[in-house]
Design goal:
Chain lengths: ~350, ~350
């Protein structure tokens, strides 16, 4: 946080909004009218509009003790863009509502907005409206993202078919292990404020937690290779519960291979420091914002071109249930809490 | 509130969302995909999309001591629809994010949603998505509304012209006086819990506060009479500050006539019980959700057909400033806090 402190009350509500939005330059032709009126106006020129919303509440979704405001702003945008990409769509606009307590200064809010604008620039998205209000307690963030997709090209969760390949992007479990480190360091700091944080070598997992990215590259790869996933969603909870969503909404079962689940080497090392199974982190940890999707088997040859995509299993009929085959060859039912690795190795 | 109490935890997050959204029937052809995926999909078929968002926080925007949850749900929708109508557009969808503390039961949430759905049905709007999360303290509501408008037919705040007539819908100040009654009764109740509330005869102003409506009828009247306002916004703060928005954003001044400001007879009586000037309530009170707009002078003959519209003044050049002419004939600058009647008559 900045050292200077300017009270929000010095600007007033209108002045505050003007201060925070004065540098906006709209990037999309679809953004017909932006901040400053009763509502924004968008023209997707014959494309369909995709809309999603997420609320982040201090003390529930984030802890300002170890979350830089710049990263929080960035992540607030990313979690919504991830939902838009999960529809096979392109994000184009966001609106942002904030509840702010008076312990925030203009400088801290500026840092938060810096993160918002950085994400907007990187992903080519316009901030076109919002609402800024006071909160009695805690910082409250509500982002709604809009995107566009060619008519009927969006991809739902409910349309996977038997025999489809089950795939994930990137690697999983890192954000959860990053959170464990941050929580541990916070606890040590609370007990012994003089102790320096020991996060050496953990930048990968901590970055996964504090500054996730949305998988624009995967959706662009689909477009380039003319792949249309048969179903897709983003992985904001653990892999287990998301796979169960696809199974339930598509009325299918699946087989998932533990050995195929993508695990980053730094995450693996970090998980062992906490004596937990990396696979369990991937299955039950959340906030990785990777994509989970299914494709027709004959798209396999195209998929292998992309190192960022792992085929982790396949879809079966519903009666077969949803199962994971462990590295040891045993078979377990997938549960929403993950597959109990967290308990068995502790 | 209902007497039965079912803990939210008995359903789980997914179960809760299914419970709350199970009866949704989409009303608009534009709602291509609703609740239940990463995002909703909307096709406005060549029209432009209008988007607005508002956040309501317990203890800041509402007090559950005297706000029935059904009315709160209703009002949460209305305040957003009002912004869509203020663009001369038609609302079509909402997304809803909630932060809920564990003191809420399923039954109380059901009441809140009953209000949400009642407003949606009445205004022909679809609830197509959202996010439901826990809050550490207080009830937090964030609604984003989408609407549609024929290309470039939306009406901004910045496009009034010199000589245009300044108009408002309905009557003003009622919600503010309603709030005064509710706050008074709450205070009495806190001090002497046995005393029955004395709200006899105040149903009009209390209704204005607790269950406002959005002025769909005015926007439909414009369409029917082929009137396009030159500028428009909704009156969520007092009339004074909203007029100053139009003046500032259109780079104009104005003359407002006190005697033309529409005041309801029940509001007038109620204001006198608090020994405050009804005009001051209209100028400085908020939450009436009426429309403030300007029209070309030659639309006057059409406007007078509608008893729900009052011409209250006209636009001047910016250098002339923004003034109110009192009933006594004196001239005062309009200020965002209103024109100090609240102080002079107390």
């Amino acid at each position: 946080m900045s050292n200077q402190r300017t009270e929000i009350s010095t600007l007033g509500e209108l002045g505050l909004i003007e201060h925070l939005t004065k540098n906006i330059e709209l990037q999309n032709a679809s953004s017909v009218l932006g901040v400053g009126d009763d509502a924004a106006v968008i023209d997707h020129f014959g494309k369909q509009t995709v809309v999603t919303t997420d609320m982040l509440i201090e003390g529930v979704h984030f802890d300002l003790a170890y979350t830089p405001l710049r990263h929080l702003g960035y992540k607030s945008v990313i979690v919504n863009l991830s939902d838009i990409y999960a529809m096979n769509a392109t994000p184009t606009q966001i609106v942002l509502s904030l509840g702010i307590s008076n312990r925030f200064s203009i400088e801290t809010l500026d840092e938060f907005y810096e993160g918002i604008y950085t994400a907007c620039r990187k992903y080519g998205v316009d901030l076109v409206g919002g609402d800024t209000t006071s909160s009695q307690k805690g910082f409250i963030i509500s982002v709604t993202a809009l995107g566009e997709v060619a008519p009927d090209k969006f991809v739902k969760r409910s349309t996977a078919r038997k025999g489809d390949l089950l795939c994930v992007s990137g690697d999983l479990g890192g954000a959860y292990v990053g959170l464990l480190f941050l929580e541990r360091e916070k606890k040590i700091f609370m007990e012994s404020p003089g102790v320096q944080p020991d996060l050496e070598g953990e930048s990968y997992v901590i970055g996964r937690m504090l500054k996730p990215e949305a998988r624009r590259d995967i959706v662009e790869f689909f477009a380039k290779e003319e792949i249309t996933p048969t179903s897709m969603m983003d992985i904001s909870d653990g892999l287990s519960s998301e796979i169960l969503h696809i199974c339930r909404q598509s009325n299918l079962g699946c087989v998932l291979y533990e050995e195929k689940i993508p695990i980053h080497k730094d995450m693996k090392k970090a998980a062992f420091k906490f004596e937990i199974d990396p696979t369990a982190c991937a299955l039950s940890g959340g906030e990785d914002y990777e994509l989970l999707f299914t494709v027709q088997p004959n798209d396999y040859d195209k998929l292998v071109l992309n190192e960022q995509i792992s085929v982790v299993g396949y879809m079966t009929e519903a009666a077969a249930g949803a199962h994971i085959i462990t590295k040891g060859g045993s078979k377990h039912a997938i549960t929403a809490q993950g597959w109990d690795h967290l308990n068995t190795t502790r």
